[in-house]
Amino acid sequence: MSLWQLNSRGWQWVGRAGQQGLQWLADRRPIDAAADVTSGVSVDRSFLIALLALLSIGLVMVASATLGMGDSGAAGRGLLIRQSGAVGVGLVAMVVLMMMPLRHFVALRNLILLASLLLLAVLFIPGVAHTVNGATRWIDLGFVRLQASEFARLGMIVWMAAYLGVHLDKVQTRIRGMGAPVAVIMLASTLLLLQPDYGNTVVLGATLFAMAWLMRAQLQTMLMLIAAGGALAIVGVFSAQYRVDRLLSFSNPFADPFGDGYQLVNALIAIGTGGLFGRGLGESVQKLAYLPEAHTDFIFAVYAEEFGLFGVIALLGLYGVLVWRGFVIARMAWAVKHYTGAALAWGISTWVGMQTLINMGVNMGLLPTKGLTLPLISYGGSAMVATLLAMGLVLRVHHEASRAMAEAGIEDVREVSR
């Protein structure tokens, strides 16, 4: 079956099960201008091609980065199998969300927000959370560990999009219109910092701010948020000595190449030795017991070593297409007054683009170590499933916006002023 023929009966059946499960909870009245169409899904081909290409590269790089781990590489094969399973689960979940009208999420926005905050709060219950390297970020379910912040962040982006869509006039004209989002950002940031998870705090806060700004929230409110966010970021850095050490070490990692600068030094060696064309797939030297977290936070360095500068340019191009098409989809939704869809597509695209640049910046020594993975590439089941869920939501926005544009006779979003 062609990837573009998503209006077949098979895809409809997958989505119908999830749609019927939520239908009794939701108000059947549409929230935005986009039509509720269930007779098939129209897909942004460029977005989907970039997404599938990144997923393929990710599986190949996880296999390469874990090559030789454990006895006879058994540990590496185990990680690859688990990552492949996460990709499979994520793709199924993505298709289900593609078939689910966004009005359901708008109707359930407060429940989604509550669940997101509870995911972060449950980490402080003894016996439930799992701690790794001093950070308590995982919920131990026995058979699997979930990184709570990945799903909580997506939930809060969905809530923010629904809030902006429903209360857009108040957000654009009144300072108090942003009262609820500010309270949510502060509460979520506090819970994340207590884990501690400074990287996700920055990404979440910046993403929610960008969503409000793109939706034309009142200027005075935006300025106050910038001031508050800057103050919170400074306090967050200086509240822990290890963050101060990271901030100082990244500027000159070779001053302490076997201490605080060890990880970055080896990442820079990997990137530098990649040259223009790289050593070749599987030929990275730094991943062999030199570069810590080679399959997670620093997988980009392994990729650069094996594929070189031209490979990095190609990877940046794929991420660029993904984010660019996400912004185009948001613009389509704005053109038909589908404000929840516009905010959602802008938020998810901003999140993916920002996290990608931060991860690459950390690997290249441009930013302090943040502990953020490379979206769709790095090993991590929770991050993979959450990201694919987000991709499903963007594709759903495209479907609803494109159908609404067709019904309104709009052929080009440039016909409608921003």
UniProtKB/TrEMBL annotation:
InterPro entries reported for this sequence: Cell_cycle_FtsW-rel_CS, FtsW, FtsW/RodA
One GO MF term attached to the UniProt entry: peptidoglycan glycosyltransferase activity
What organism is this sequence from?
Answer: Guyparkeria halophila
Gene name, Swiss-Prot/TrEMBL: ftsW
Which pathway or pathways does this protein act in? Cell wall biogenesis; peptidoglycan biosynthesis
Recorded GO CC terms: cell division site; plasma membrane
EC no. given is 2.4.99.28
TM helices/strands, residue ranges: 47-67, 79-99, 111-131, 151-168, 175-192, 198-215, 222-242, 307-327, 339-362, 374-395
- Report the locations given in the UniProt record: Cell inner membrane; Cell membrane
For this chain, the family text in UniProt reads: Belongs to the SEDS family. FtsW subfamily.
The record's annotation in Pfam families points to: FTSW_RODA_SPOVE (PF01098)
Q: Which reaction does it catalyse?
A: [GlcNAc-(1->4)-Mur2Ac(oyl-L-Ala-gamma-D-Glu-L-Lys-D-Ala-D-Ala)](n)-di-trans,octa-cis-undecaprenyl diphosphate + beta-D-GlcNAc-(1->4)-Mur2Ac(oyl-L-Ala-gamma-D-Glu-L-Lys-D-Ala-D-Ala)-di-trans,octa-cis-undecaprenyl diphosphate = [GlcNAc-(1->4)-Mur2Ac(oyl-L-Ala-gamma-D-Glu-L-Lys-D-Ala-D-Ala)](n+1)-di-trans,octa-cis-undecaprenyl diphosphate + di-trans,octa-cis-undecaprenyl diphosphate + H(+)
Q: Which GO terms describe its biological process?
A: cell wall organization; FtsZ-dependent cytokinesis; peptidoglycan biosynthetic process; regulation of cell shape
Q: Which PANTHER family match?
A: CELL CYCLE PROTEIN (PTHR30474), PEPTIDOGLYCAN GLYCOSYLTRANSFERASE FTSW-RELATED (PTHR30474:SF2)
As for membrane topology, the entry says: Multi-pass membrane protein
**Task of the protein:** Peptidoglycan polymerase that is essential for cell division.
Q: Which UniProt keywords apply?
A: Cell cycle, Cell division, Cell inner membrane, Cell membrane, Cell shape, Cell wall biogenesis/degradation, Glycosyltransferase, Membrane, Peptidoglycan synthesis, Transferase, Transmembrane, Transmembrane helix
Please report the name of this protein according to its UniProt entry.
Probable peptidoglycan glycosyltransferase FtsW
- At the top of the EC hierarchy, this enzyme's class is transferase
